[in-house]
Every structure is written in C-alpha cells, then in structure tokens.
Design a protein that fits this description.
Chain lengths: 282, 371
Amino acid sequence: MHIVVCIKQVPDSAQIRVHPVTNTIMRQGVPAIVNPYDLFSLEEALRLKDKFGGKVTMLCMGPPQAEEALRKCISFGADDAVLVTDRAFAGADTLATSYALTAGVRQIAKEQAVDIVFTGKQTIDGDTAQVGPGIAKRMGLQLLTYVSRIVEVDLEKRSITVERRAEGGVQVLKTSLPCLITMLENTNEMRFANLPAMIHAAAYPVRKWSKEDAGIEDLSKIGLKGSPTVVSKVFGPTPRSEKVEMLDLESSSLRDVSLNLIQKIFTRHPTLESDLLMKEMT
Amino acid sequence: MSQAPTPAAAPAKRPAGRGGRNLELSDELKAYKGVWVFIEHDRGHVHSVSWELIGEARKLADTLGCPVSAILLGGPDEPLEKFAAEAFTFGADKAYIMKDPVLKGYRNEPFTKGMTDLVNKYQPEIFLLGATSMGRDLAGSVATTLLTGLTADCTELKIDPTSKALAATRPTFGGSLYCTIMTLAYRPQMATVRPRVMLMPRADASRTGEITYDTLGMIETDIVTKMLDFIADANSNKINLPYADVIVSGGKGLKNPENFKLVFELARVLGGEVGSTRPCVQAGWVEADRQVGQTGKTVRPKLYIAAGISGAIQHRVGCEAADVIVAINTDVNAPIFEFAHYGIVGNAMQVLPALTQAFAAHLALRSRQVA
Ligand SMILES: Cc1cc2nc3c(=O)[nH]c(=O)nc-3n(C[C@H](O)[C@H](O)[C@H](O)COP(=O)(O)OP(=O)(O)OC[C@H]3O[C@@H](n4cnc5c(N)ncnc54)[C@H](O)[C@@H]3O)c2cc1C
C-alpha cells in the first residue's frame, strides 16, 4: 500500500503575538510546527502501513525550512519525504496550493501508484479546510472528509469503508481506492518517536522539488497568479470601547455581589429575565 | 500558504494587483448575477445556518440590486418545496430545486456535480454556504471544480463600494488577526460562514417566491461512494451550544473535573448549557462538543458566564458575540476582563455556588410574583 500524506508547516499560533501598532504578526521566536490536524492523518496512515505494509510518503509545499516539518514526520515513521519548494509558489491561496500539491502527488505516483492521499482536516493558520477537497477534485479521487474511523480496507477489492462525522450523526461510507481522506481531530494519538528514529530523521535526505521537478509548467496556476482570492486588508480585533465593570468582593459579601450582578444583568438585558421565567414554567 | 496572509511590513494599502495580475472581471463573468445560499438539510430539518445566510444574502443583494436564491438538493420524498417556502419568508426571492434519488443524504460526488451544473447554468455572482461538515466539504469541491475563489469561515460579508466585489472578512492565525479577502477576477465569489456568526433573520410569512426545477443527470451506478448507514447521535446527550440562550463556561481555572459540577449547577438553574475551553476538552474534563472558540463552537447567547477562563483570543472569537459576558477570574489582569461586561475577581469555586444560590432565589421570587 502506498500512502501520501500532505502536511503544512505552520507557526504555533498559540504563541503568536500581534504587533500592537502595525497589526502584523510577530513571528520572531515563534516555533514552527507540523500543523496539528495533519498528525491525525499521518498517524492513521502509519496504522494502515502497520497493518498492510507498504510505504508512507510525506508531501509538503512550502519554504525550504519546511523541511524540518517533514523530518519530524520521518521520525514518527514515515518512509520518504518530498518538499515542493519554489519562489513561484509564494502567495498561493487554497486553490493554487491544491494545484501544486496535486502536481506533487502525481509525480510521486509515477514512482509508485498511490492508494490513499491524506491531508489534515484544516490548518491552524489558514483554517480553511479547502485543500483536501481541492486535491481530491483535481485528481478525480473520491473525497472522504472529517473521517472519525477507518472501518475496513479491502486491498483486493480496492475498497475502503469509513465513518465520517456529519451534523447530527455519523455516515458510514464505502468507496473505492484511490481516495482522499481528511481525519477528524482527536481520532487517534500520534505515536512517539524513539531516539534511533530521531537520529534517522535528522539525517534523512528530504527531496526538494522545484516547480519543474513537480512537473508544473503553467505558471498561471500557481502562487499569487493562480490564486483567485486576494487579501485586501489585514487588521487586529477591534478593542471594545466599553470597559468592563468590576464588582468588588473586598468591600461586600459574596451574596451581595451576586445579587448586585443579577440586577445589573437583567437591567442590561431586559428580556432575559422573562425568558428564563418562561423556560422555568414550561 | 493557504489563505493566511503573510504581512511582512505594515498592511499594504494597495488592493493587490501585484505581479501584473489581471484583477479585472472579464466580460463573460460580468453576466454573473444574484446571491445564492445553499440550503443545508438532513433528515427533514434545515440547518439554521442556512437561514442566517439568507438574512446575510438579503443585505448583500439589496446593496447590489439583485435577487437572493435558495438552492435545494435532495431526494424525491424530501419536503424541498416546504423548505423553499421557508427560505422565501426569510428573504429569498427564488429557489432552485434539484430532486433525485441519489441526492438523498449528503454525498460529495452527486452534490458537487449538481451544484456545479446549477452554477454554470444560472451564473450567480455570490454563493454562500454554512461552514459545517457538509458545507465545507461541498464548498471546497465546488470551488475547485469551478476554479474560483472561496473564503472560509467568514465573520463579516460586505460589498466593496469600488469594485462591487464581495469583501469577506475572516479570522486568521487562530483569531489573532482578521483579514478581508476578495475574489476580483473570478465568479462566483464563494464563502462559508459558521453557524451563529450571523444573526437569524426575522421571518415574514407574507413573502413568497418562484421555484425552478432542474435535473441532475446521474444515476446511482455512476456514483462511486455508497452510504451504508447513518448513525444518528443519541438525542439524550445532544449538546446544542450554538443556539443556547445562556451558557456557563468553565476553564482550567476550575482546577479539576469535579469542580465542573459547580458550572453544571449554575447552568441548570439558568436552563442553559455548559461550555468550556480547549485545554479542558483536551484533558477529558468535558465533551468536545462543549468547546467554545476558534476550533470549537461559535456561540451567541444572551448571557455568557466564564468561570476560570483566561480569555485567550481563540476562546474570545467564539463567545464575544454574547449580549452579556460575565467573567469570574482570580487574576485581575486576565485578558477575559478586556471583553467581559461584568467582572468579578475571585475564586470561581466560591463565586459559582453563591451565584447559583442567588439566581435560584431571585428566579423563584420573581416567578411567584408573576404567577
Ligand atoms: C490553534 C489553536 C486553537 C485553539 N482553539 C481554542 C478554542 O477553540 N477554544 C479555546 O477555549 N481555546 C482554544 N485554544 C487554546 C487557547 O489558546 C487557550 O489556551 C485556552 O483558551 C485557555 O483555556 P483556559 O482559559 O481554560 O485555561 P488557562 O489559560 O490555563 O486559564 C485559566 C484561567 O483561570 C484562572 N483561574 C485560576 N484559578 C482560578 C480560580 N480558582 N477561580 C477563578 N479563576 C481561576 C487563571 O487566572 C487563568 O486566567 C486554541 C489554541 C490553539 C493554538
């Protein structure tokens, strides 16, 4: 079984600060990590490999330093890694990103046919959840998003059955291979990398492909040119003009503060009290 | 690289146009008119986000002077006409209905084909979908098939006065920044919006509209993916945070899962739901469906009480639309006090029971007065 897992290197958004004056991201010192959602897909790919044998190839589009993210995945047990990196990819939105990654998957598939492509559910910096569906459509693969469990894979019949999270329930879907899967978060736990694996990963020769290496000739489909969306403005959250009203516990009792707060809440929101009373009576 | 902007310097004033990109709409695409809303329904119910989007679409269409259309795909025995009639009361002018046995229950392949065909035939200018698991799955597929722009999880939709393009604002970098995104040279302009980000419009029972029917032209054997089963969530533990009027949320400041019962008690007295933060969900203190925030639910309650919650930006974006926010935190410098309306600096384990008691007494007294 040959599985390709697409990942992205992202800034650890929990540690990101916004410059108060210029409203720009201050990246200095912010660690770059593998997009956390991608790891649920990688772990699932590794489990399939444990079960069926074969190979897991990592794929990433990004700047040269994204090599580190791929190395991390090698330390978890992925077999090979390709970084599609080229200045021409800069400024790509999700449509252009899915094009570049599709080219990468196709190129990898020339070496060995691909059974499943995994991507993360979404990224933590872009949060769009669009790249997976984009690659699936471009490649004509069956798309399985928000998968909570892989129920069965039948390599002989070339079929796969999964559970997919939908609003209000779980769909049990059966489709044929090859397909594209995005795993739901918290569906599994990434295994640990042991020391030999980390040493192996540190020395692993991550392959770096330019746009030509990835088989991309049409410049109008990648990077800024290939991106229909245009970022026209970036700004920080608007600070609230109204200031918080503090209720002091030092000078009055807990009970008084509570009663005082209740009065204030219902004065501020006059219909809330009657709503609550109505609810109580029905 | 997706849609996250990479601002190296101060935000550029120029609306792109970098690298000689063609940002002019071609004549062919100028013919695209109207605002569409995908009406998401499943097992007889329309997801409320669709009505919220109709309300938003109405405003956009009024600015542009064009109609709002509701798009309904489903099986022959599903009440799509009833849903269309409801869409009219919320502000739609037209409905496009596609009925086919293979459209019963959402599957990506037939829905993408149906949607793409409709867009190509009727050429809408703007196309909105809910950022649900169905809406995101479909939006990404349709946008790629049509090779057009799609902006995910928008929090504000406007028409740019100069270009008349859709200016879609969305949080990025986990909510630390917002960016406004436009699709200038492509049509339709697509966007998804999470449930409860937009206000529910008021229904006007006198409004009606016109229905157009189309056929899919696909049979079951054309479709590779089969739905073997649908396991509905047990109704007993259905948590409906996005639509709760009152939410009492607890954070890591509650110290341990046992203390969460204080939150549940106050929520019970107020007839509300219990919310929480990501670390509490990750620690297994509460169910994932209770997470409020960027990677959890967006909520819009009348009252939001946050106990032991720091108010990190990723939490804030999910709850700041609440009418009244009350924060209980031991740390006077906690960021939650920057956006709460009322604050109590104190130990949640003491304040919560006191509040529960006071609310219970107050409501009991008032209901006797009313009765
Ligand atoms: C990509 C990404 C996505 C995220 N998405 C979300 C999301 O959707 N939702 C979310 O909530 N978070 C999210 N987070 C996490 C977020 O950044 C914060 O870490 C989180 O919201 C903090 O949770 P907390 O307030 O419960 O805990 P803490 O940050 O640990 O804060 C606990 C607070 O409790 C106070 N406290 C301590 N003891 C008491 C006491 N006895 N009484 C009262 N107060 C007390 C402390 O002063 C402190 O302010 C995300 C992070 C990332 C990186």
